[in-house]
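debug: dumping io for the single-chain case to check the tokenizer round-trip. Nothing else runs in this session.
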Amino acid sequence: MTRFPPRDGLSAFEAPMRVEADIAGLEVVQGEVPEHLSGTYYRVVTDRQWPPAVLPDVPTFNDDGMAMYFRFHGGRVDFRSRYVRTPRYEAEAKAGRALFGAYRNPLTDDPSVAGISRGLANTNVFYHGGKLYASKEDSPPILLDPITLETIGEYTFEGTLTSQTCTAHPKIDPHTGEMVFFGYAAKGETTPDIAYYEADADGRIIHEAWLRAPYSSMVHDWAVTQNFVIFPIIPMRSEWEWLEAGQPHFQWDPDREIYLGVLPRKGRADQVRWLRGSNRFASHILGAWDDGRHIHIETPVGESNFFPFFPDVTGAPYDPIRARGYLSRWTIDMGSDEQTFTETRLTDVAGEFPRMDDRYETLPHRRGFLALNHVPGEDRPGAGFRWIGAFDTTGATRPQIYYPGDDCSVGEPLFVPGDDDAPEGHGYVFVVVGRHQEMRSDLVILDAQRLDGPPVATVALPIRIRRGLHGNWVSSRELAARTA
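debug: decoded output
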């Protein structure tokens, strides 16, 4: 008998959907979809195929990946969703039940799946070199057909990916078209090894370097500039002994310092410089750039652990106030002998999932967008991420804030340029809004320069979409040139 047990935060609107859908011509219930928008918004959500085999389970992170797209053409928007048929998904589909156990703990798996990849491809969908990748940081990526979303299979860059893992947050150099990426826990779960790669514009790996972090931790995102790569080592630690004891894979350590590992682009491991800072939490990077000497990194920073389902090693209870992340700038002076960095807070509202105009990845930029979970003075019904904010990172203007309504949730904001030649930040912000009272979702299109104004268009879905992680826009021109 199939029965899903209640899990924290994953009931009602966030209960498993288990539905693959095709919907042509979504209804536009407000405004008009710009006819010149031509391309596809790919994203991925988590949606468990079978009830978990081990409880308690880590919400979302240990669920199957469901890839989806919104395809724009001539003012019309079509929708499609498909499970990513990973080796793990296929094994469980054949068995008709969950076979893989606790989050990132192979010791809890059914013996029948020993040696099968545990990857879920549930974190990001990105496009490079004519290929569409679905990814999660604990395994190699999965290739999808960009037109049908059908699964092609696990991809190791024609056998040249030597790491066991591959990040879900690669960076694309806008000047060269190179994809800069890495794998942490590269020699296996809880190992401190990091493999750093660069692939050319066609997706062929052209550089590789291996280094060891000061301790094993979650390196979910990182920073890349024109001249440097930076690995944030945050004390969300992992230990093999914890897995043997049946404890959570990651645990927050409030007594550990953080480190920033700085390496020149295409550099060797012996060139890494480790800078230290006081204990704090950070995960996603808005953007980063350098002037040859100074490196600037923008990221939401909190005083403590953001994830309530990963415990504190001291046994301290989760503190939602100290967990709030405020967009901040870390500055590294590579010309100084100081083995640390400075931090400047940029906002007084808290949030996560920062995004920018990706055409300015690795370069100086001014415009950023975040999903917000705290706005001072705003006491609104609901929980989690409920607003979208637009920020001038120079502080020249106040943030603009979009609020979709009471009892609504928002996903990651995605910037889409108005056209290929549009100035930085001129275009649209896409956000999937969960209408919890109606048990369905909308895709809302906002004017990126007037985020607090009326939406450009609201595209309604007749179904709900569970909480998602990341996604990206691919223009029709890029898709037409694909080689995969």
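debug: round-trip ok. The two ends are 41 Å apart (CA to CA).
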